[in-house]
Backbone:
């Protein structure tokens, strides 16, 4: 499998570490309803089809990237650096 | 038709022209008492034990493809009960006990072979962790032996004791562990369930659930609507997709796990051996092929195939453990889709929807669990409550914090 | 030896023709007898040149079997090649290149190939139909492992594996190209040339040692020249181009995602031994922008009764042996064809001087060609209904159009059963082949846009079609890869269009229990019918129940015939019946090839600490800690065992001073104006309140609330922090920090720099550590007043070498860690030891370090096992209540706050001479050894020279309430059961005064 690192170009998947879905949004703070936290930490859509997912270019630029990939065919639909995405709610709170 | 040597000989005289089908091929009825979605090992076992243990025979097993087309037909055939944590050990031991009597029970030889499962350890810390696990097994009445390096060498002389990157310090041996002819498990349960009146319906894919007032009322399928009061879902690999039809989100990701078989050779490796400093396990089938595997590929997938990095790692580990395997050839690789759960442990439980039950999240461990999974799931469906053996496998354990994390890896499915 | 005797020693070798070098005779042995062949031979062709067809026994019935094919799809002729540590079981004689001195042995027979006792299985065949073992061997239950299974295992299997380590070496290599062409037959060569001419980087892989594919065994002409001349011309053109790479003896065994292909090059298999510095095989990982699959087609056997005797061969194989290897594989032949390509075999045999006794064709009419084949009897509308001959075919029974049977003596029966596109690679990415009724074969299904199929592999049969399709596919591939198309006229072929007529073969005769479909696994037509009768009607069920297609050829010869029979007996069409899935590898691949050099000692990188060389000189015993090698202890003179050494090292730290390399700890610098904010988020305790020059213990949780890791965090500047992690979690923590920053808090102005390998970090611990360090620092005041416990400073040592000094103690004694640039590590430890020895210094290893920290009750790997919480570890006071941090929210879950959770305590044996062992479980005294009485477990256990007995750490339910009580440390797997007293985690200097002094 080849993944398009936005910084390094296309590389073999052995250079990357997979984390999971990029969709769950961390609740704004630790006092948020516990259900939101359970959702964030444990529940996943796990789609058969396009999936937004977090990969870490561990043996490359060490960037976290969000790859859109079809889980049925492994077709790559796009990739962008995670840090260029709109920040989740918790970040603005931290700031 | 009951199987025996006498029956085999009798049929030989008539050129085997009179064998009857191992299971019928019925049209689905309009309604059943209970529907099991998924004709894999777990679903078929569930149907079998519903009929056998609970007298519930108005049951249909709905399979979207052919029975046994999921992970029961694409695993590395290992059975064992060498688990550490409460909630796991007793369950898997019950499974092993069912394996031990399965063939006579089913009248189908699934070649349950208790050849032993040996986990190698490569450091003092790992040996201590194995001791902790072995002791937990012994406290559960399960056989476990902690071996030193010399004892391991006597059992498995072809291991590399000379040039290993991670020296073999010993191992945890469960002699009652072993292997089973995997496809035969599906067929044996199917035949047993069928003989007790269960309808096994292949090429029948569930496309939706009918839910009325918070209760299941039936399923829509590619072969029409079928009503049922109780529905058990046992579709590991596709649990999230099927649960989503009922509006449920699960603590599960689907991942691909590859496995491999070599060309058949004369007996070489007697027991199941697992590597402790990498992810690798190997055994030799009765036919002579070495059956082996390693880690999951590590990314979400519904494609039953993997990629080369894992192939490379698995074969590197194989040759590192057994340098004499280097010239052997691997013949085939395949992939199965695992329900990787958030704590590495399964779910056998009711769901928030009345009458809908879930059996999911087996990670790598589903095959060995097949009989107990079916047995416990049948109990849960029949009685509406968990049996003590599956009481830890609750769907809501993530919300209460009672996770069962054997590896201590946390809520990252691909690490389990 | 004169050429004359060489020739006469090979009675079936033709006097001329073929692609062999008659001038050189090569001796080889098969089953102990010496024979000769020539360069250019395979083992199979050399055996046939010597009149040997019988080469193997089948898996189940041990029936005598001969060479069926001339390529890698061979199911019968499997041998053990080479001997000793180089023995390779199940090697196909049809692809093993002959080399001088080759040694091969037949396999799975006893006592000999010609007389095999196990052939008795064949007599019992009536009671051994498909799946018989599922129906018996169940009584009594215990007999399976003891009696039945050992017999089955001994009888099963094919060849014998070597039992010694492989002496040869292998390697992994990478290739990147614009166009990968797989197969060098007419289509592949045309494609490679077309792609190359447009300027693309082209890789052409051919599994054979010669380019040409089927052209090697044909007499066709291309552009008015012999086909081999055209092959040579294209080969020359490709060789002349620097952007083209041709890999012979290279099998592309699998297609993977996004243009990644796996291939194995057999670099030295055609030699007696690999030359020095040369690998036996090389695994290529090829990344191609576009792939052209031009793998040709495989001829399909015909299923009829007794179709498996030695001397029955594929018609295409006969052609190959005649034309390429100059062998006449029989003197009197029958050709049984349902496909017109069989006529070429008739012609080839006649040219080679064999008599063709009959041509049998179930179709009603013979084509034009039949008229020019001389005296061969052509029987249209006829079929072969049986054969005779035990170890070699002796005759063929033929039933003619009128139903009359006749017996014809023959020593060769060629089968032309039609062609199956070799589309296996095209289904590796999940594409299902489609049945094409017009050619009675499966063709590739829909494919990703970067994969194309050309020629016979696509079901476009015939030389003309192959050439045209090859040019098309090559040009298009280059175009897709971004190169301008070059217009190229396809070469013109002389050959007759192939496959003009074909008929399905499987209904040609009444099939029975000796009509073999899968030759190697002895799966017969009757077995398939039985499977269907028993309900195994799905193609996958039938395959798994009968083992059809599961032999070493993976169904290349048997798949379609088996499907067709299954379709027939279940009343379905082949298209309805479907097909099983082709999976990698296309042909079996040696473990060693894929493992490459990354095995044995090189399975994983070995990381050495900066003081490794020094420690090795000091005879340290090393231990693997993850990828690191660390000094475990340093044996001293006169010490009887490791325990004495460790005791000495511990005593030195407790009484004078010790030094230990702790460079393996993960080291991370976090810099920037928002560094403190990030760290407050990552650590459970507060970091940003640290003053510059101070450090503290830090605890990290996972988001699920459990402990991830612990370590120290030092503030070395206003915007600069230095973190240490445990050795085991270094990479995980770094990635986690990067996650928290890049994904959760991307707006923070922070940089995270891993510096683990930049620093040699030495722990200097013990009452005299200050005294020792004072000798090496450049005028830095080490007094507690100026540099109290948990301080950090950037200093210089030894007249100007930059260093960092941390006052921190993992032993409980006055202690420091000093970091110097990694390259100074070796010199630094030598200096410390030289200066320290007069003070009583001992270097200490990981074992003593463990003793010291267990005495202090500090958690490490055994306690931070991923299953424990801060509260379990007694660290709940660190959990900040003033901020959000990773892992805080889920602390609210009920399970985290249950009073029954086991918590960290220490243990000491009541009888001081008792040994404690980690992994023991804890039970109440007198409680039965049952799981419901399990109270916890011991995580670490050491002999403490400080206390004069063993001590342990572990987790105990309600442990804090049980200090001073006695419990059992129960360890049945090591036959130990010890009464222990529960203590607080810290047993040594519990108020920490020593470290602060």
Residues:
């Amino acid at each position: 499998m080849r993944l398009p690192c936005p910084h390094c170009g296309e590389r073999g998947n052995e250079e990357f570490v997979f984390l999971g879905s990029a969709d769950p949004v961390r609740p704004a703070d630790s006092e948020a309803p516990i259900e939101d936290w359970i959702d964030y930490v444990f529940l996943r859509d796990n789609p058969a089809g396009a999936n937004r997912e977090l990969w870490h270019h561990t043996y490359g630029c060490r960037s976290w990237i969000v790859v859109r990939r079809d889980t049925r065919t492994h077709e790559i639909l796009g990739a962008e650096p995670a840090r260029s995405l709109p920040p989740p709610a918790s970040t603005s709170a931290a700031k | 038709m009951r199987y025996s040597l006498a029956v085999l000989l009798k049929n030989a005289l008539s050129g085997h022209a009179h064998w009857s089908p191992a299971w019928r091929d019925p049209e689905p009825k309009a309604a059943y008492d209970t529907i099991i979605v998924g004709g894999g090992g777990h679903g078929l076992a569930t149907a079998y034990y519903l009929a056998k243990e609970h007298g519930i025979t108005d049951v249909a097993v709905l399979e979207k493809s052919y029975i046994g087309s999921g992970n029961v037909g694409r695993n590395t055939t290992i059975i064992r009960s060498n688990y550490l944590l409460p909630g796991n050990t007793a369950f898997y031991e019950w499974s092993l006990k069912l394996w031990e009597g399965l063939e006579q029970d089913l009248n189908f030889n699934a070649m349950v072979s208790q050849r032993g499962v040996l986990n190698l350890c490569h450091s003092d810390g790992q040996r201590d962790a194995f001791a902790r696990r072995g002791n937990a097994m012994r406290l559960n009445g399960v056989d476990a032996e902690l071996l030193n390096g010399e004892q391991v060498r006597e059992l498995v002389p072809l291991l590399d004791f000379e040039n290993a990157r991670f020296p073999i310090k010993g191992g945890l041996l469960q002699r009652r562990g072993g292997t089973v002819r995997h496809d035969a498990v599906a067929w044996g349960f199917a035949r047993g369930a069928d003989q007790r009146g269960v309808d096994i319906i292949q090429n029948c894919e569930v496309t939706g659930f009918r839910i009325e007032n918070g209760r299941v009322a039936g399923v829509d399928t590619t072969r029409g609507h079928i009503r049922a009061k109780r529905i058990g879902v046992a579709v590991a690999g596709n649990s999230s997709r099927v649960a989503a039809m009922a509006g449920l989100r699960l603590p599960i990701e689907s991942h691909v796990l590859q496995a491999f078989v070599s060309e058949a050779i004369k007996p070489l490796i007697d027991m199941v051996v697992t590597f402790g400093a990498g992810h690798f396990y190997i055994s030799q089938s009765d036919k002579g092929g070495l059956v082996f595997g390693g880690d999951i590929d590590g990314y979400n997938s519904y494609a039953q195939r993997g990629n080369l990095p894992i192939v490379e790692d698995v074969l590197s580990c194989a040759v590192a453990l057994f340098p004499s395997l280097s010239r052997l050839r691997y013949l085939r690789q395949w992939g199965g889709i695992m329900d990787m759960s958030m704590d590495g442990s399964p779910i056998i439980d009711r769901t928030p929807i009345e009458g809908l039950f879930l059996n999911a999240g087996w990670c790598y461990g589903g095959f060995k669990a097949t009989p107990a999974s079916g047995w416990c799931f049948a109990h849960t469906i029949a009685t509406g409550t968990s049996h003590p053996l599956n009481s830890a496998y609750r769907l809501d354990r993530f919300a209460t914090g009672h996770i069962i994390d054997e590896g201590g890896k946390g809520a990252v499915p691909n690490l389990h | 030896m004169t050429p004359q005797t060489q020739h006469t020693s090979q009675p079936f070798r033709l006097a001329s023709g073929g692609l062999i070098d008659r001038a050189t005779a090569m001796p080889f042995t098969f089953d102990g007898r010496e024979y000769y062949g020539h360069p250019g031979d395979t083992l199979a062709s050399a055996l046939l040149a010597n009149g040997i067809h019988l080469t193997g026994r089948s898996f189940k019935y041990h029936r005598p079997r001969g060479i069926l094919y001339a390529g890698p799809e061979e199911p019968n002729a499997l041998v053990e090649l080479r001997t000793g540590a180089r023995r390779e079981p199940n090697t196909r004689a049809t692809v093993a290149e002959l080399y001088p001195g080759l040694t091969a042995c037949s396999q799975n027979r006893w006592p000999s190939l010609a007389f095999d006792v196990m052939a008795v299985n064949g007599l019992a065949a009536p009671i051994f139909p498909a799946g018989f073992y599922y129906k018996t061997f169940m009584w009594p239950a215990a007999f399976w492992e003891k009696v039945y299974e050992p017999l089955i295992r001994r009888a099963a299997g094919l060849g014998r594996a070597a039992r010694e380590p492989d002496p040869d070496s292998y390697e992994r290599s990478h290739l990147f190209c614009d166009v990968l062409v797989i197969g060098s037959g007419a289509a592949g060569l045309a494609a490679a040339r077309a792609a190359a001419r447009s300027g693309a980087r082209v890789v052409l892989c051919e599994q054979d040692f010669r380019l040409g594919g089927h052209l090697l065994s044909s007499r066709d002409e291309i552009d008015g020249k012999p086909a081999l001349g055209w092959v040579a011309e294209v080969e020359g053109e490709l060789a002349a181009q620097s952007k083209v790479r041709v890999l012979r003896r290279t099998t592309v065994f699998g297609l993977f995602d996004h243009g990644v292909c796996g291939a194995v090059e057999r670099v030295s298999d055609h030699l007696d031994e690999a030359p020095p510095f040369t690998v036996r095989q090389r695994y290529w990982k090829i990344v191609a922008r576009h792939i052209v699959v031009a793998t040709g087609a495989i001829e399909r056997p015909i299923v009829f009764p007794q179709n498996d005797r030695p001397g029955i061969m594929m018609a295409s194989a006969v052609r190959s042996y005649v034309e390429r290897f100059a062998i006449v594989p029989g003197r009197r032949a029958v050709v049984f064809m349902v496909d017109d390509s069989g006529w070429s075999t008739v012609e080839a045999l006649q040219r080679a001087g064999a008599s063709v006794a009959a041509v049998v064709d179930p179709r009603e009419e013979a084509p034009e060609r039949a008229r020019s084949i001389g005296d061969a009897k052509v029987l249209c509308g006829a079929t072969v209904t049986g054969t005779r001959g035990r170890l070699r075919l002796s005759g063929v029974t033929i039933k003619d159009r009128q139903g009359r049977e006749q017996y014809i003596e023959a020593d060769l029966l060629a089968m032309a059963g039609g062609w199956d596109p070799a589309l296996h690679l095209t289904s590796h990415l999940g594409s299902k082949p489609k049945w094409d009724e017009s050619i009675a074969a499966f063709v590739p299904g829909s494919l990703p846009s970067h994969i194309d199929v050309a020629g016979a592999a696509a079901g476009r049969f015939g030389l003309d079609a192959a050439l045209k399709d090859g040019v098309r596919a090559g040009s298009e591939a280059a175009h897709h890869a971004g190169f301008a198309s070059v217009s190229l006229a396809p070469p013109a072929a002389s050959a007759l269009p192939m496959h003009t007529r074909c008929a399905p073969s499987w209904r040609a005769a009444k099939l029975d229990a000796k009509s073999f479909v899968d030759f190697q696994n002895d799966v017969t037509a009757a077995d398939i019918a039985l499977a269907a009768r028993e309900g195994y009607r799905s193609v996958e069920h039938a395959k798994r129940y009968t083992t059809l297609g599961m032999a070493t050829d993976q169904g290349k010869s048997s798949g379609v015939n088996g499907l067709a029979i299954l379709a027939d007996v279940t009343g379905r069409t082949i298209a309805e019946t479907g097909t099983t899935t082709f999976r990698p590898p296309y042909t079996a691949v040696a473990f060693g090839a894929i493992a490459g050099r990354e095995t044995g000692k090189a399975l994983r990188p070995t990381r050495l600490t900066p003081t490794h060389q020094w420690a090795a000189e000091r005879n340290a015993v090393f231990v693997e800690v993850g990828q690191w090698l660390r000094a475990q202890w340093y044996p001293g003179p006169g010490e009887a065992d490791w325990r004495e050494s460790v005791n000495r090292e511990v005593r030195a730290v407790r009484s004078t001073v010790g030094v230990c390399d702790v460079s393996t700890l993960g080291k991370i610098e976090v810099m920037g104006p928002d560094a403190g904010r990030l760290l407050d988020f990552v650590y459970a305790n507060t970091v940003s309140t640290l003053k510059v020059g101070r450090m503290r213990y830090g605890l990290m949780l996972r988001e699920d609330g459990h402990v991830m890791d612990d370590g120290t965090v030092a503030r070395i500047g206003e915007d600069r922090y230095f973190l240490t992690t445990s050795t085991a979690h270094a990479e995980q923590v770094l990635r986690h920090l990067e996650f928290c920053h890049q994904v959760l808090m991307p707006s923070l102005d922070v940089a995270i720099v891993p510096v683990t390998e930049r620093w040699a970090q030495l722990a200097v611990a013990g009452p005299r550590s200050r005294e020792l360090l004072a000798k090496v620092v450049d005028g830095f005041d080490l007094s507690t007043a100026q540099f109290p416990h948990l301080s950090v400073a950037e200093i210089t040592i030894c007249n100007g070498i930059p260093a960092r000094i941390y006052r921190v103690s993992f032993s409980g004694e006055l202690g420091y860690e000093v970091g110097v640039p990694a390259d100074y590590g070796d010199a630094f430890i030598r200096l410390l030891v030289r200066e320290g020895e007069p003070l009583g210094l001992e270097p200490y290893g990981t074992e003593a370090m463990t003793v010291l920290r267990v005495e202090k009750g500090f958690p490490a790997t055994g306690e931070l096992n991923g299953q424990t919480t801060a509260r379990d570890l007694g660290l709940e006071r660190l959990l900040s209540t003033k901020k959000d941090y990773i892992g805080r929210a889920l602390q609210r879950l009920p399970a985290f706050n249950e009073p029954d959770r086991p918590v960290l305590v220490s243990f000491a044996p009541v009888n001081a001479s008792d040994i404690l062992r980690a992994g023991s479980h804890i039970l109440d005294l007198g409680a039965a050894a049952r799981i419901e009485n399990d109270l916890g477990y011991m995580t670490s256990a050491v002999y403490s020279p400080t206390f004069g007995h063993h001590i342990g750490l572990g987790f105990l339910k309600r442990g804090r309430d049980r200090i001073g009580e006695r419990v059992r440390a129960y360890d049945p797997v090591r036959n130990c059961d010890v009464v222990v007293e529960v203590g607080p985690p810290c047993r040594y200097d519990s108020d920490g005064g020593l470290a602060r002094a």
Q: What stands out?
A: Chain C has a mean pLDDT of 95. The longest helix of chain C spans residues 463-480. The CA atoms of residues 533 and 570 of chain C lie 8 Å apart.
